[in-house]
C-alpha cells in the first residue's frame, strides 16, 4: 500500500527543515525531499550568524523566537549553537549615534543590550584595531551556528527524535499537483509521493517546479563573496562581529534609527558600498574566521549572468577594509567561495498559496539563518488552519 504523509516539504535547506520541524511538533507526519545529496545552497554558504538585532519589526520577533528554538534544540542535541553574542562596532560619530539609537529602540522591547566604551570593547576583544573602534553595542543573548554543520545535525536530530519524519536526498521534484483530495508529487526518477499538503521551499532552484510562476515573481538572486582564514585559535574575537558598514546597511538601523537618513557616507566607503560590501567576522570552532561579504544581483530569469567566478578585486576590497578593523593578518586565507540566495526587492519573503494544499515559501533572503525557525512556526500554524 502507498504511504501518505500529512505534509511533504520540497527543499532541504533551513527554511524547509524548520517547516518540517514545526509540523512534527504538531504531530504531523512529514516527508522532506532534497534535490542534492545534502543541503549545499544558501543554508551552508553563509556566516552562521543569528542576529535578531539586525531585523525589523515582526522579523525581529521571528529572530528572537528562533534564537530560543536554537537554544532549546541545542540543550537536547548538539547542532553547533554557541551563545557568544553579537557585537556591533562603530568607527565614527555617525555610527556611534546609530548604535545609541538602536539601543534605545531595543530597550523599549526588553531586549538586553549594552553600550561598550572603546576601552571596554578593546579589553574584551584585543584583536580589534584601536584606531577603528570608537564604541560598540553588544547583544549578549544572540548566538551563532556552524553553517557547514548545523543543517546536517538538525536533520539527524529530527530523524532520531520524530518517528513520523523521513528525509530523502538526491530527489529533484518536477511536479506537484492535486489529484482528488491529496497531492501527488513526482521526482525526476518517476517516483510518486502522496500527501495532504505540500510546502515548496526551493531556495534558488526555480527551473524544475512552477517555473512560469517564478519567472514573473520579481525575485532577484544575490551573489555574495566570502572567505575563510586558516585556523587562528589564539585570536580572541568571539561571537558575531558586525562593523560600521553593517550599521549603514541592516534594516534595523534604517527603520529604527531616526538619524539613519541624515548620515553622510565617508569617501572610503563609496567603492565598498558600490559592491554591497559590509564586513562581518565569525570565528568557527576550529579558530578560523569567516570574513565577508559582497552583494551582486540578477533577476531570477538571469541567474546565470552572475557567473561562477570570484572577482579578486572585490576580495581585495574586503580584505583591505577587514585589515583596517582587526590587528591579526586577515590575508591568511584558506578558502574563497560564492554564496547565492533569492530575495524580493519589496517583500521580506515570497509566499504563494497555489490552493489550500500546495504552498510556496521561499526567497527569505539573508534572513534565513536568523528568522527561519521563528517564521516557520507561524507559517505552519497558518497552513494547517486552511
How confident overall, as mean pLDDT?
Answer: 96
Query: What is the CATH C level class of the largest domain, in words?
Result: Alpha Beta
Unreliable stretches covering 5 or more consecutive residues: none
CATH architecture of the largest domain: 3-Layer(bba) Sandwich
Distance between the termini: 28 Å
Tell me the radius of gyration: 21 Å
If helices are DSSP runs of H or I spanning 4 or more residues, what is the number of helices?
A: 11
CATH topology of the largest domain: FAD/NAD(P)-binding domain
Helical proportion, percent range: 25-40%
Strand count, sense and barrel status of the largest sheet are: 9 strands, mixed
CATH superfamily of the largest domain: FAD/NAD(P)-binding domain
Which outline best applies? globular
Strand content: 25-35%
Number of strands: 19
What does this 3D model show about the protein?
This protein is an alpha+beta fold. It has 2 domains: 1-83 and 141-217 and 348-386, FAD/NAD(P)-binding domain, CATH 3.50.50.60; 86-138 and 220-343, 2-Layer Sandwich (D-Amino Acid Oxidase, Chain A, domain 2). It has helices at 14-25, 57-76, 93-107, 118-124, 150-161, 211-215, 244-247, 251-256, 270-274, 312-325, 368-385; strands spanning 4-10, 30-33, 49-50, 86-90, 114-117, 135-139, 143-144, 165-168, 173-179, 182-187, 192-200, 220-229, 240-242, 280-283, 289-292, 296-299, 333-343, 350-353, 358-362. Helix 1 crosses helix 11 and helix 2 (57-76) crosses helix 11 (368-385). The chain is globular. The two termini are 28 Å apart.
Amino acid at each position: 500500500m502507498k504511504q501518505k504523509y500529512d505534509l511533504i516539504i520540497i527543499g532541504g535547506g533551513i527554511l524547509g527543515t524548520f517547516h518540517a520541524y514545526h509540523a512534527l511538533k504538531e504531530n504531523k507526519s512529514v516527508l522532506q525531499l532534497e534535490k542534492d545529496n545534502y543541503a549545499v545552497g544558501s543554508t551552508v554558504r553563509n556566516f552562521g550568524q543569528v542576529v535578531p538585532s539586525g531585523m525589523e519589526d515582526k522579523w525581529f520577533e521571528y529572530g528572537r523566537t528562533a534564537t530560543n528554538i536554537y537554544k532549546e534544540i541545542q540543550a537536547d542535541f548538539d547542532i553547533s549553537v554557541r551563545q557568544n553574542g553579537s557585537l556591533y562596532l562603530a568607527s565614527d560619530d555617525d555610527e556611534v549615534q546609530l548604535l545609541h539609537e538602536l539601543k534605545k529602540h531595543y530597550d523599549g522591547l526588553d531586549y538586553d543590550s549594552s553600550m561598550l566604551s572603546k576601552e571596554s570593547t578593546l579589553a574584551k576583544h584585543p584583536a580589534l584595531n584601536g584606531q577603528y573602534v570608537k564604541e560598540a553595542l553588544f547583544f549578549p543573548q544572540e548566538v551563532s551556528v556552524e553553517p557547514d554543520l548545523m543543517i546536517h545535525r538538525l536533520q539527524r536530530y529530527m530523524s532520531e527524535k520524530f518517528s513520523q519524519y523521513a528525509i530523502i536526498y538526491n530527489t529533484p521534484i518536477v511536479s506537484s499537483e492535486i489529484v482528488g483530495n491529496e497531492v501527488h508529487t513526482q521526482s525526476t526518477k518517476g517516483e510518486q509521493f502522496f500527501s495532504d499538503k505540500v510546502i515548496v521551499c526551493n531556495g534558488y532552484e526555480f527551473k524544475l517546479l512552477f517555473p512560469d510562476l517564478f519567472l514573473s515573481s520579481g525575485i532577484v538572486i544575490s551573489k555574495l563573496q566570502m572567505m575563510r582564514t586558516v585556523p587562528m585559535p589564539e585570536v580572541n574575537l568571539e561571537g558575531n562581529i558586525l562593523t560600521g558598514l553593517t550599521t549603514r546597511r541592516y534594516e534595523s538601523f534604517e527603520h529604527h534609527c531616526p538619524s539613519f537618513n541624515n548620515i553622510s557616507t565617508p569617501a572610503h566607503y563609496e567603492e565598498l558600498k558600490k559592491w554591497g560590501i559590509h564586513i562581518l567576522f565569525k570565528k568557527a570552532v576550529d579558530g578560523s574566521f569567516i570574513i565577508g561579504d559582497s552583494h551582486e544581483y540578477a533577476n531570477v530569469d538571469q541567474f546565470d549572468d552572475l557567473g561562477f567566478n570570484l572577482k579578486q578585486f572585490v576580495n581585495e576590497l574586503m580584505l583591505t577594509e577587514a585589515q583596517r578593523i582587526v590587528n591579526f593578518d586577515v590575508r591568511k586565507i584558506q578558502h574563497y567561495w560564492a554564496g547565492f540566495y533569492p530575495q524580493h526587492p519589496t517583500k521580506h519573503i515570497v509566499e504563494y498559496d497555489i490552493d489550500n494544499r500546495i504552498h510556496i515559501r521561499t526567497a527569505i533572503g539573508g534572513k534565513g539563518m536568523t528568522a527561519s525557525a521563528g517564521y516557520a512556526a507561524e507559517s505552519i500554524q497558518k497552513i494547517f488552519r486552511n
